[in-house]
Amino acid sequence: MKNTRAMVMLVVAVLLGAMAVTLAAQWLGRQADIATNRVVVATRDIQLGSPLTPDMLTTVEWPSGSLPTGAISDPAELGDRVVKTTLTRGEPVLESKLAPKGTKGGLSAVIAEGKRAITVKVNEVVGVAGFALPGNHVDIMVNTNDARGRGNDEQHMISKIVLERILVLAVAQEASRDDTKPKVVNAVTLEVTPEEAEKIDLARSVGNLSLVLRNQVDTEDSQTSGIRKQELLHGISEPAPAARPVRTAVKRVAPRPKPAAESNGQTVEVIKGLNRSEMAF
Questions:
Q1: Which strand (E) or helix (H) includes residue 212?
Q2: What is the rounded distance in angstroms from the CA atom of residue 160 to the CA atom of residue 199?
Q3: Which partner for 122 in 87, 126, 168, 230 could form a disulfide, CB atoms 3.0-4.6 Å apart?
Q4: How far is CA 73 from the centre of its chain?
């Protein structure tokens, strides 16, 4: 009885094993039929602004159905190209992650078209204790005198956000966006438009600049009017400067002659020497 049960279990195990092998062979056959393409990927981590070299690249098989947009199949097409974002090992090299052809390596390769890079001198306080890192966005605030021609009066000091959502390109000489550790440095490089560069240059010449770190997904404008000393200490808004009195020309009008008194119809003849006259009453 025991031998019969053992034989049955052995036969069942053999049948299940044969079924598993058959199913595995069929699955492998289907996988072999999937179309693939060669895609260039990075062989190691590549920092932004780095020129690509052959030892940084290799090709792998990639399913055609999930081929990334802008994928490149031939490493020879990437000679002297520069990456404008950081690439990790095994990540596909896409056209959207490359600077335009002819671009040289360095920070200038990652500056967006139509933008400029300007460096601002900072300290531990101005630089948000080193938390303003490459890839972050900051607002720029200036503290200056708003006396409006009334002299250097501390009562008219104002702090105002003058630029918002400015991209930090680099801190000191570091442009890597992978590090999250704070770095206290003495200079921060920002990506701005030409008009924003002019505002920053003027702002740092008329007052003190501060960087205000903001949420990376926050795109709303603050729309503030600034804060003055009277508002800060006493909650009193500074009155608007009094308007100068306007002088108006006054036209002098000659007085009209008084009308002659009306007579009551009586006249008197007056004789003075040789002169003779009449007076009406």
A1: strand 207-213
A2: 13
A3: 126
A4: 35
Tens-digit pLDDT profile for residues 114-127: 899 999 988 777 77
DSSP helix/strand/coil, 29: helix
The answer, as to whether pTM is greater than 0.85, is: no
Residue written as tokens 């956000």? Answer: 161
Domain(s) labelled CATH 3.90.1210.10 in the chain stretch across 36-108
Residues 86-91 have a mean pLDDT of 89
Cβ 98 vs Cβ 51: under 8 Å = no
Q: How far apart are CA 75 and CA 56, in angstroms?
A: 10
Task: Return the residue matching tokens 């996988």.
Answer: 31
Of 3.90.1210.10, 3.30.310.50, 3.40.50.720, 3.30.1360.70, the CATH number of 36-108 is 3.90.1210.10
Q: How far apart are CA 56 and CA 37, in angstroms?
A: 20
Instruction: Give mean pLDDT, residues 149-163.
Output: 75
